[in-house]
Request: fold
Amino acid sequence: MEFALSDEQQAIAKAVRDLMEGEIAPRAAEIDEGEKFPAWVRELFQRYDLFAAMLPREYGGIDGSLLTQCVVMEGVARVCASSSMVLGNQSLGATPLVLAGSEEQKRRWLPAFATGEKLASFGLTEPNAGSDVKGLSTRAVRSEGGWIVNGRKCFITHANVADLVVVFAKVHEGGGDQITAFLVETDRSGYEVDKIEHKMGLRGSTTCSFVLEDVWVPEENMLGRVGEGFPILVDSLNKGRISVAAQSTGIALGALEASARYCKERTQFGQPLARMPAVQQIVADMVTAVDAARCLTWAAAYKYDTHAPDMVRYSGMAKLFASDAAMKVTTDAVQIMGGYGYMAEYPVERMMRDAKIFQIFEGTNQVQRLTVAREFFASL
Amino acid sequence: MNIVVCVKQVVDTEAEKRLDPTSWRLDRTVENILNPYDEYAVEEAVRLKEAHGGEITVLCMGPEEAAAAVRKALAMGADRAVMVTDPALAGSDTQGTAHALAEALKPLEFDITLFGIMSTDAQTGQVPAAVAALLDLPLLSALNKVEIRDGALSVHRQTDQGYVAYECPLPAVLSVAKGINEPRYPSLKGIMAAKKKPMEVKDAAALSLVPGRIGGSGAKTRVLATSNPQPRAPGVRVEDQGDGAEKILDFLLKEKLV
Reply:
C-alpha cells in the first residue's frame, strides 16, 4: 500500500500549519467561546484556497484527492476543530452533488463551493432518525413542475449560514417509501432555521434545527432519481468518515503537542515532567495512537482515491480508531497537565470537549464496528 | 519591472542547531525552510509586480533539497526560478556565494535584485553588498519602504533612530528589513501552480565560476573555533515596596529602552 505525500502535499501541509499557527491559534479559544459560525475563518480559508482542497479539480478544486483533503483537515483540526468544520461540512454537503449530480447541477454549485463563495450543508438527521435513517419522516410529494417538501431536520451543521442544503426525504411511489435527495436553497420560502444548539464542544460550529414547511423546489433540484437517496447518503458518508478521521487525528495531534511541550517545561520534584517514567508511559501511548490514527486514515483515503473494494471497511476503521484515539489522547493530555490541563488558559480542555462528538457523528463508533465486522466477514 | 529575488534555504528557526565538530558546518539534516528574512523580499517583489507588472525570478544557491524553499517562493507568486547547485559550492563563504550569485545574475535581465537583510543561519548580511560590488551596481540595504517613482527607486533605509530616504536609478541591488511588509502564506492553488513554473538548474561549469573562489577551499575566511552561547542571565527582579514603578523606570532608562 502506497500513500506517501507528494512534494505538493507536503508543501500544503506546511502552508496549512503556518496559516493555522499564525492566524487561527491566537483566536481558537475565542472561536470556541463565541458559539457562532466564524465568518472571518471562512474568509481566511477562501483567500488561501482551502475550500478548493474539498472539491474535484474539474470544478475548481486542487486535485480532488481525498488524501490531500485529509492533510488539510488534520492541519486545521490540530489547531481548531471548530474551524475544521467550516471545511468538513463543505465537503460533506458538496459530496452528494459530486457523486450523483447532473452536469448542470455540478456546474451550478461546485465551483462556488470550491471557492467558498457558497456554503453547502448535509440535511439527513431528524429527531427520530439518527443512525436509523429508514426512520426519516421528511416527505416530498410531486407538485406542478417540481416537488413540495415538508419535515424537520435537527443537528444540521451550518444550516443557518449555508446557501444550499442537501435534504433527504421520503417519496411514496411504487408502493413504498423511497429515500430521495433534494437540493434545497436556503432562501426558498418555507425554509426556516428555528434552533441553534448549545454544545459541549465544537462550539464555533453551529448545529441547527430547521423546518421545511411546504417548500417547493423545481424538478431539476432532485439529486439522482427517486429512491437513489439511500446510496447517495451512504456513499457520501463513506467519504465523509475518512475526512472525520483526519480531523480526529488533527485534534489528537494538537493535544499531544501542546501537552508534551508543557511536560518539557513544567518542573516538579526537581525535574521536568518529560523525564518522569509515569508521564513517559502515557506520552508514548499518545504518540503511538496519533501516528496509528494517521496511518489508518491515509490508508483509507488511498483506498478511496484508488476505488479499492475494501474502502468501506477502511473508512469505518479509520473513523472509529481515530476518533477513539482523539478522545483518549485529549483526555490524557488534560491528565498529564494536571490542574492546568483542566483550565481554559490552555487549549487541551477545549480539545477534549471537541473530541467527543467525533465518536458520535457521521455514524457512531458502535455502528462503525457493526459495519467493519459485517464487511470483514463478507470478504472472507 | 523585472525583479530577481535571491533566496536561501536555512535550518528551521525553531529547530535545535548543531555544528559538525570537524567541519564547523551547520548540520542541515533537520527541518529546512525558506530563510524567513527572504520571505519579506519575496513579498516585496510580488507587491512591486502587482503594482508595476513584470516578471519575478527566484535565484537560489544551495543543495538540490533547497528546491523546496524555491518552490515556496514560487507559490507566493514568483514566476520562474534559477537554482545554482553544485557539490563544489558546498562550504563557500560569503565571497564565494556572491561570486556564484553575481555570475548567475549576469545573463538575467532585471531592474531590481532583492535580498532579505541576512540569512538566519550565518547572519552576516554581507552577500547583498558583495553581489552589488561584483556587478558594479548601487546597493541600498536594510530598507523598510520601497517605491518606484518615475522609473526610479524611492526608498527608506531603516536606522536605529528612524529612516533615511534615498532615491536611486535602476537597476540596483536592494536588501529589505524585517517588517517591511507582512509576507503572505502560499495559497493552495499557488502551491499547485508552482509545480508547473520553470526551474532552471545551473552548476559551477555552466556559470564559468572560478574554482579558486568557491567551496570550502576557495573560502577567504576560516572558522577557527566555535562555542555555545552563554545561557541567558536571570532577569532582574524588582520587589515592590511602594517604589516598584520608579525602580522599573530607572532600569528602563538605564537600558535606554524608554
